[in-house]
Amino acid sequence: MTEINGSRNVLKDFVSKVGLPTIIIAVFWIFTLVAATFLDMSTTTLLSDTLKRAGMNGILVLAMVPSIQSGTGPNFALPVGIVCGLLSLVISIELGFTGLAWLLVSIGFAIPFAIIAGYLYGKLINAVKGSEMTIATYTGFSIVAFMCLIWLMVPFKSPKMGWFIGKGLRETIQLAGVGGAQILNDFLKFRIGEVTIPTGLILVFLFFCFLMWIFSKSKTGLAITAGGMSPKFSVATGLNINKNRIIANIVSTVLAAIGIIVYSQSYGYAQLYDGPLMMAFSAVAAILIGGATASRAKVSNVIIGVVLFQGLLTTALPVANKIFVGTDLSEIMRMVVQNGIILYALTQVKGGDK
After folding, report:
1. Contacts for 293-297 with beta carbons within 8 Å, 24 or more apart?
2. What is the mean pLDDT of residues 177-186?
């Protein structure tokens, strides 16, 4: 009996430490990989796609960390930073940059744009304490709707972006035309057996993870985390909670702006108009799958979460379509997994003062 109780306690501690969603998704992913093998699907191709998708989505998921650490919760206003990155991307094309220069100039423009937008968004979040996630969602939707007008009105002349008839920018811009497709994917790319490793893409993602980890250990990063964990105690010790929340949201917005540029070059296309509308939800789901909560997050949660989430989507969706021939369940399953994880996390948020 003692051994049984001990085993139960070990199992309970393991589930508590790792997180129930993480365990469920990991087991389900392994199950789908096994199912793919029996269905004569190429598991090496699925693993290659998983690595690529994890790298291209990783920085967008990383943008959740400073926001959650500051106590404002998952950054559902991620589109604020995303549109800053997209605006920088099209400006760089308009100025005639190509290849690696286009990528670096786009990031160079994105950072100041995102700093300004992040500061203004941080001020808004401080003004609506207690309703951050609701306001963030509406802010994200609103900025996407506003930018739809901007994309139609910008006086850009580049034939690589404009509509063939009329004014404004196309909904989808092909980056191969400016040498901007798969720049990072192809850098130092190699193969292990039949699995392709997009080295440059993975290294850039890990580099920003390292920077975020260093930032979280800095004086400012620790102050942000302390303010998120215990606002009243932090105020009593003299910390400026509002200032730290603004800094956290600036960092989150900058990461989102850089993240969409990395994502777009990997995808090979820049998607404007409604493209950024729902991107925050997949990023939130990924970090929650990695073991984060609506009030606590670490860089390790990002790495684990983005691999599991993208791995599940990459594997489970084609497996489902293979089993249910003649149907396309991919979008339905993606929404069920994504929104189910978010709903579970939000049910774990405790009310009351911290």
Report:
1. 293/68, 293/345, 293/348, 293/349, 294/68, 294/73, 294/74, 294/133, 294/345, 294/346, 294/348, 294/349, 295/68, 295/71, 295/73, 295/228, 295/229, 295/349, 296/68, 296/69, 297/64, 297/65, 297/68, 297/69
2. 91
